[in-house]
Design brief:
- Strand 3 and strand 4 form a beta hairpin.
- The chain is of the alpha+beta class.
- About 21% of the residues have low confidence.
- It is built from four helices and four strands, in the order E-E-H-E-E-H-H-H.
- It has two domains: 95 residues, no CATH class; 71 residues, no CATH class.
Length: 172
């Protein structure tokens, strides 16, 4: 029997970009393995994938242009392949920014209006970073107003209207 586990994650960076990482592991498990043992094996390899993805996201964030990552996770040991993973992550994954942090422009405390999106691509990036995600809200607004189906084809005025609408509808 083969067991396949994987983790894939993409996170926004501070400069309207994103970083992503994927880890997938497939292992051969003896046919007579019980459900409890199978769950234990799956959980251990899944933990390894999550740790690997966290490490890669941290590494990519540190290499991304713009402000440095808030606190990269400590280095974690690589497991030996013979006996499987036996470690725990040294630090949890970085927490998502609080909703109030989106109202200020990073370290300067300036109103986010200065960083308002000016085209469809920037609007999508902004919407994806919101907590909760505002892409659906922006898309629904565009459909209701009869805007082009692709947000990247919207005019500057349409982008501005959708941004103001989504920003006003967010729960604070």
């Amino acid at each position: 029997m083969r067991l396949k586990v994987g983790v894939s994650r993409r996170e926004a960076t501070d400069r309207d970009g994103s970083v992503g990482a994927t880890c997938e592991i497939e292992v051969e498990v003896p046919g007579g393995t019980g459900e409890a043992e199978l769950a234990r094996i799956r959980d251990r390899w899944l933990e390894m994938c999550e740790t690997t993805v966290d490490d890669e996201i941290d590494r990519l964030r540190a290499a991304a242009p713009g402000p440095p990552a808030s606190s990269p996770a400590q280095a974690r040991p690589v497991p030996s392949r013979s006996n499987g993973p036996t470690w725990r992550p040294a630090a949890p994954a970085p927490a998502r920014r609080a909703r109030d942090d989106f109202d200020r422009d990073d370290d300067r405390g300036l109103d986010n209006e200065r960083a308002a999106p000016t085209n469809g691509r920037q609007l999508l990036g902004w919407a994806a970073k919101q907590d909760p995600d505002a892409k659906g809200l922006v898309i629904a607004f565009g459909k209701k107003k009869g805007y082009p189906p692709k947000i990247v084809d919207w005019t500057d005025d349409q982008v501005d209207a959708a941004y103001r609408y989504a920003r006003g509808r967010q729960v604070r």
